[in-house]
Specification:
Elements lengths: L2 E6 L14 E2 L2 E2 H9 L7 E7 L5 H10 L2 E5 L4 H11 L4 E6 L7 H13 L4 E3 L13 E4 H8 L5 H6 L3 H4 L6 E3 L18 H15 L7 H10 L17
Parallel strand pairs: 1-4, 1-6, 4-5, 7-9
Antiparallel strand pairs: 2-3, 6-8, 7-8
Helix pairs in contact: 3-5
Length: 244
């Protein structure tokens, strides 16, 4: 069973263009994310799923520099892009991530992969019901299952958000959502990269924690924000895109 993480990344974000290559502590956000994913003990590969848009040549250049696999596909049909990226690199299982989660924790990924492998679930996630901080989102499913979904009469939203069809159709797929325990149960915290305030918050976290331990965890992020409550001012008033 080959398990790969896909990172959905493009330069033409409507709210913060070029966000995945904005630098924090001398490295683009996407590079920080790739480095964090590479610490996983369960992933066999990482593939950046970017687009054929010429503006995304910069993402390809970074991937080549980091010797990270990439796939270029549709800008709007993200489901198709991720599916073809998985097929291109012979993935049996997809760990879906997005480029706006640069703080993603490999420990949570490995825990979810173990749950997926040890049970009979079609879809395993930690964000269908949000208990973890926003920005640590992980979704796991098979390439075959996504291929089945791709052939259905899908909405634009289904195509844009890749795997939301799974939890919205529990009669078709057996889904599991991991709930955060104790200290990590902090849905009030937002560390996702959507707007400039988010970048300022993430930059502060990365620079503040990396000097102590580059392999900082979700728990470390929570503790850092609790110890520096003024950081939340960066993201006050930001309205997130909701998925119904």
């Amino acid at each position: 069973m080959k398990i790969i993480a896909t990172i959905e990344a493009r330069m033409t974000s409507s709210r913060l263009p070029g966000k995945v290559l904005m630098e924090s502590c001398g490295k683009p956000m996407l590079e920080h994310m790739i480095e964090r994913l590479r610490r996983s003990k369960r992933l066999d590969d990482i593939v950046v799923a970017t687009t054929t848009n010429s503006e995304d040549n910069l993402i390809v250049t970074l991937c080549e520099k980091l010797q990270c696999h990439y796939y270029r596909g549709s800008e709007d049909d993200v489901l198709d892009r991720v599916l073809k990226a998985a097929k291109r690199f012979d993935a049996d299982v997809i760990v879906e991530t997005t480029g706006d989660c640069p703080l993603i924790d490999w420990r949570q990924i490995d825990e979810l992969i173990d749950i997926y492998k040890e049970n009979d679930y079609d879809y395993v996630s930690n964000s269908t019901e949000r208990t973890y901080p926003d920005g640590f989102d992980i979704r796991i499913f098979s390439t075959d299952a996504l291929d089945i979904i791709s052939k259905k009469d899908l909405t634009i939203l289904d195509r844009e958000h890749v795997s939301i069809y799974f939890p919205q159709h529990p009669q078709e797929f057996k889904c599991y959502n991991l709930l955060a325990e104790s200290y990590e149960n902090r849905p009030d915290i937002e560390v996702t990269l959507d707007e400039i305030g988010d970048f300022k918050l993430l930059d502060s976290i990365i620079c503040g924690l990396s000097t102590i331990n580059p392999d900082f965890s979700c728990r470390d992020v929570i503790e850092y924000i609790d110890e520096n409550p003024e950081l939340k001012e960066y993201v006050e008033g930001i309205k997130r895109k909701g998925i119904s």
